[in-house]
Amino acid sequence: MSTGTTNETQMVIITGMSGAGKTVAIQSLEDLGFFCVDNLPPTLLPKFLELMKESGNKMNKVALVMDLRGREFFDHLFKALDELAETSWVSPQILFLDADDSTLVRRYKETRRFHPLAQSGLPLEGIKLERELLDELKGRAQLIYNTSQMKPRELREKIITEFTTNNQSIFTVNVMSFGFKHGIPIDADLVFDVRFLPNPHYIDHMRPKTGLDEEVSSYVLKWNETHKFIEKVTDLLSFMLPHYKREGKAQLVIAIGCTGGQHRSVTLAEYLAKYFGNDYKTLVSHRDIERRKDQTT
Fold first, then answer.
1. Which of 30, 175, 252, 279 could form a cystine bridge with 273, CB 3.0-4.6 A?
2. Between 123-139 and 101-111, two packed helices, what is the crossing angle to 10 degrees?
3. What's the rounded Cα separation, in Å, for the pair 241 and 273?
4. pLDDT tens track of the chain, all 297 residues?
5. Helices 77-85 & 123-139, crossing angle to 10 degrees?
6. Nearest to 96 by CA among 195, 4, 15
């Protein structure tokens, strides 16, 4: 497993055959917290290194895609790689993505795209030329993945396994409370409506409080219907979360909604975040908790 040291900047240069999965690779590294640049011309690499150095530790994990879309700059790539190898504060790796000719032809036909080097429009012509041009670069790569038999999810999992450090957690569970009167969050993956639960708003001294107050949370959590809801929703999520993680999803947004987003939804969002916090990286937020005036929660 690759981990860059504390004194070095980790840099991954993604290159290889067009259609072999470079887009999946750069997206996967971006989810791992890498600063990513797609299709960086090799001539700009020295300037980019200057920007990285000036940023201090803000850019300590970088991923760059360099391929034949920038073929007019490609002659400069080997010179740039030689200069990079002499830079003491950067730990570079070349990730070369390859695939069989038949697989690449099929992928181009499925996407109805033209190969960037196919002057006649025939994919195989461009693939053969590209393979010749990239042969030397492939020989310099530290990592070579043949994606012919890989689905995008499998390539993503392989990259995550290779580049995830021991203290990273790629899959994040975001639990959010909200009020239906302010609209359903557009970024929610799962939405649970808890407006059927007893409402603390109708108890005068609880009305100005929120689900972050112990009195309110105790009130919401004391009912049998709340216990049954928690039992069913935790059972459902315990089943679903490992499957989302296995599928390669970077995060899951679980939205818990009541009427105004202050009492019931806040209480249960806090409960669920704490419940799953031991097994997953879990974040909790309360979108509408500050909207207190003239609200029913």
1. 175
2. 130
3. 13
4. 443 334 567 889 999 988 899 999 999 999 888 999 988 888 888 888 888 888 777 788 899 998 765 555 666 777 777 777 777 677 788 899 999 988 888 887 777 677 776 666 677 887 888 888 888 888 888 899 999 988 888 898 889 888 876 445 467 899 999 999 999 999 899 999 999 999 998 998 999 999 999 999 999 999 999 999 999 999 999 999 988 876 667 789 999 999 999 999 999 999 999 999 988 889 999 999 988 644 444
5. 30
6. 15
Distance CA 176, CA 188 (A): 8
Q: Are 192 and 233 in contact (CB under 8 A)?
A: yes
